[in-house]
């Protein structure tokens, strides 16, 4: 591992220093922290992980999942991130956490660069201290220590504060990075360093040399001499960018150094579609070039020169130059300790800027459409929901040729890839479609008495009545295996119960699912709720895929569920041992006992803790259609709020309606005029004809 590290360009700390700085740096560390320098000299013995990171620069990453391949990364720390709430001094705990994350990534073999604010705040703290000390001494000499007047601190000029704070800020960074055996180097720049060709080449060469020696460059605008920002040539084109704050500096540096990723940390979670403080502000997960028109920018942060609008302009400029960008919150106590590493790991943090816009709506947008459509669906009359389901049943038979043609494509593509039992599930036929249509019409009939049904009525007190009524759950997400006939069944149940629906079918049934979904939306359109059912663009990663159990497993254990005409036989000594075996290895789905002994059978039925327990009957009866539920979403093995085959009733929840006449709780106190009755009232029966 060590030899590989050296071949990759890593060197011990005392070999990584630039020749002109080596003796100075070593003597300074020896004087300030002798134990630390001894630790640094043994750096080569510290084990760490190196990751293969080879990527040709030129095009930004299209998806968050690709960010883990980023080799060269710029982290921009906004003033609000490194500055304390009183704007005088640094947020040391937050800064230490950021340094730790940068160090972790650096020690993985990545090339990290920091663009940091904070010199002005650090200098302001030092200058205020000096001014207060000077004033107190003068007043003590003239007035005596017992008669000190209230001391007024003059307004401090920003350039003076920067000059006083830059050395202290860098010394702090050096001390923090030393704890991780990493060397840091400071580079102060102005706009001229990028527009003067010779200076630009010098800067570029210095940065590349530092990165080659595994040193973290810490870059900042030289606020002690920088001129006021000029509005001309502001972020126009790849070759022109005015460095007027650290946002534009970070973008220019990222493109200049051909970095893979720019992380901009601020005091907000990311980019919102309206100012973050407004009630309807919504965090934008992915931002695409051209979306600026849909965003309303607010004011800038409490400190610093730029606001969110400046960050977005800089981010889009960097994106155009081939660098991926994420804007995220670096101040939130719950996430700041891992925000940088989370972003690099591809987690959904902040706003990700991407040039690749999906052809259709995102999963989040589909979920919103399903919720909105579901709410409209719930407001329809029962007869209207039933009409939609009847129309869908008619379409299944009227459009059978189109459906079977699409299913034939699925079967041809699956031939040789799927086992015979799965091919049978995938196959549709005229008889299957006719059975589906019959089941859907049963659901339509039962939907007349579903949403809004009164379950309980209570007279709490005189003229104060309480009702419990059924209401839709909201939005359902149903992932189903290679059975396209599930789609219309589940859709009909969602429609009957007034729920929005997100459907994810197996890719082996893509053609069949597509035509069935189109027919479902056609049926929904007759009452203007087409978007209530969505077929979702979900891809499972290796870890998520390992959790899916939709296809038969060939694991040779007592827990194997074969999904075919196969079974495992085991011998037990008693019915109780059989029950214990089921509870240990079973799925709590459906279990059956075959016996002529009624006493044994009843014992089994009462003691097996499964959703369905049968006596002398096939487990295949565990089905919503065979139970008379019309169809099913699936078999629930949980205990709340539905168990067993989940039909229409399982897709509803309840809410409480209280109707009173100016009732207040104080009327029911010990000295109040009313008493609680809690009388059960008859539940009205709805006419289902």
From TrEMBL:
It comes from the Eukaryota. One of its GO terms (cellular component) is mitochondrion. InterPro entries: AceGlu_kinase-like_sf, Ald_DH/histidinol_DH, Ald_DH_N, Asp/Glu/Uridylate_kinase, G-glutamylP_reductase_CS, G5K_ProBA, Glu/AcGlu_kinase, Glu_5kinase/COase_Synthase. Its EC number is 2.7.2.11, 1.2.1.41. It catalyses: L-glutamate 5-semialdehyde + phosphate + NADP(+) = L-glutamyl 5-phosphate + NADPH + H(+); L-glutamate + ATP = L-glutamyl 5-phosphate + ADP. GO terms for molecular function: ATP binding; glutamate 5-kinase activity; glutamate-5-semialdehyde dehydrogenase activity. SUPFAM superfamilies: ALDH-like, Carbamate kinase-like. Residues 71-329 form the Aspartate/glutamate/uridylate kinase domain. Keywords: Amino-acid biosynthesis, ATP-binding, Kinase, Multifunctional enzyme, NADP, Nucleotide-binding, Oxidoreductase, Proline biosynthesis, Transferase. Pathway: Amino-acid biosynthesis; L-proline biosynthesis; L-glutamate 5-semialdehyde from L-glutamate: step 1/2; Amino-acid biosynthesis; L-proline biosynthesis; L-glutamate 5-semialdehyde from L-glutamate: step 2/2. GO terms for biological process: L-proline biosynthetic process. HAMAP family: ProB. In the N-terminal section; belongs to the glutamate 5-kinase family. In the C-terminal section; belongs to the gamma-glutamyl phosphate reductase family. This is Delta-1-pyrroline-5-carboxylate synthase. It comes from Rhinolophus ferrumequinum (Greater horseshoe bat).
């Amino acid at each position: 591992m060590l030899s590989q590290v050296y071949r990759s360009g890593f060197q011990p700390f005392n070999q990584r220093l630039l020749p002109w700085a080596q003796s100075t740096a070593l003597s300074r560390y020896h004087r300030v922290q002798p134990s630390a320098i001894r630790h640094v000299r043994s750096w080569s013995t510290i084990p760490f992980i190196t990751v293969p990171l080879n990527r040709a620069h030129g095009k930004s990453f299209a998806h968050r999942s690709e960010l883990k391949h980023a080799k060269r990364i710029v982290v921009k720390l906004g003033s609000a991130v490194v500055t304390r709430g009183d704007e005088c001094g640094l947020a040391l705990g937050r800064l230490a956490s950021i340094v730790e994350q940068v160090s972790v990534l650096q020690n993985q073999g990545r090339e990290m660069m920091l663009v940091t604010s904070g010199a002005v705040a650090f200098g302001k703290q030092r200058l205020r201290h000096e001014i207060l000390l000077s004033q107190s001494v003068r007043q003590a000499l003239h007035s005596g220590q017992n008669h000190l007047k209230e001391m007024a601190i003059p307004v401090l000029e920003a350039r003076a504060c920067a000059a006083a704070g830059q050395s202290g800020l860098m010394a702090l960074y050096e001390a923090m990075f030393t704890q991780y055996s990493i060397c840091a180097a400071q580079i102060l720049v102005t706009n001229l360093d990028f527009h003067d060709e010779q200076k630009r080449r010098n800067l570029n060469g210095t940065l590349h040399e530092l990165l080659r020696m595994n040193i973290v460059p810490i870059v900042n605008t030289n606020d002690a001499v920088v001129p006021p920002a000029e509005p001309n040539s502001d972020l126009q084109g790849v070759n022109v960018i005015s460095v007027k704050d650290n946002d534009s500096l970070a973008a220019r540096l990222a493109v200049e150094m051909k970095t893979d990723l720019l992380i901009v940390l601020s005091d907000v979670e990311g980019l919102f579609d309206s100012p973050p403080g407004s009630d309807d502000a919504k965090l934008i997960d992915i931002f695409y070039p051209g979306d600026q028109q849909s965003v309303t920018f607010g004011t800038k942060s409490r400190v610093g020169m730029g606001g969110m609008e400046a960050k977005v302009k800089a981010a889009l400029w960097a994106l155009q130059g081939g660098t991926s960008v994420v804007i995220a919150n670096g101040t939130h106590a719950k996430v700041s300790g891992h925000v940088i590493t989370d972003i690099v790991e591809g987690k959904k943090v902040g706003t990700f800027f991407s040039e690749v816009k999906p052809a259709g709506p995102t999963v989040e947008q589909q979920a919103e459409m399903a919720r909105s459509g579901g709410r409209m669906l719930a407001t329809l009359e029962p007869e209207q929901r039933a009409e939609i389901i009847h129309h869908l049943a008619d379409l299944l038979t009227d459009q059978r040729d189109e459906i079977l043609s699409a299913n034939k494509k699925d079967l041809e593509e699956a031939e040789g890839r799927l086992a015979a039992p799965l091919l049978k599930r995938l196959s549709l036929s005229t008889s299957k479609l006719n059975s589906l249509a019959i089941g859907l019409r049963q659901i339509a009939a039962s939907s007349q008495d579903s949403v809004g049904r009164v379950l309980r009525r209570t007279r709490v007190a005189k003229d104060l009545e309480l009702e419990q009524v059924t209401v839709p759950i909201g939005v359902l997400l149903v992932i189903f295996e290679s059975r396209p006939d599930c789609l219309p069944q589940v859709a009909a149940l969602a429609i009957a119960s007034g729920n929005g629906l997100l459907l994810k079918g197996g890719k082996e049934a893509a053609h069949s699912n597509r035509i069935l979904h189109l027919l479902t939306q056609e049926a929904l359109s007759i009452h203007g709720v087409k978007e209530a059912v969505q077929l979702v663009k979900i891809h499972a990663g290796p870890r998520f895929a390992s959790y899916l159990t939709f296809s038969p497993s060939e694991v040779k254990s007592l827990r194997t569920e074969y999904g075919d005409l196969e079974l495992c036989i085991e011998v037990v000594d008693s019915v109780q041992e059989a029950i214990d075996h089921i509870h240990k290895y079973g799925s709590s789905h459906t279990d059956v006992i075959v016996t002529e002994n009624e006493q044994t059978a009843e014992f089994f039925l009462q003691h097996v803790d499964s959703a369905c327990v049968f006596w002398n009957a096939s487990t295949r009866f565990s089905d919503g259609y065979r139970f008379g539920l019309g169809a099913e979403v699936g078999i629930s093995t949980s205990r709340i709020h539905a168990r067993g085959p989940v039909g229409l009733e399982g897709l509803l929840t309840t809410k409480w309606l209280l109707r009173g006449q100016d009732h207040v709780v104080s009327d029911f106190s010990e000295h109040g005029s009313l008493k609680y009755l809690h009388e059960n009232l008859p539940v009205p029966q709805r006419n289902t004809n």
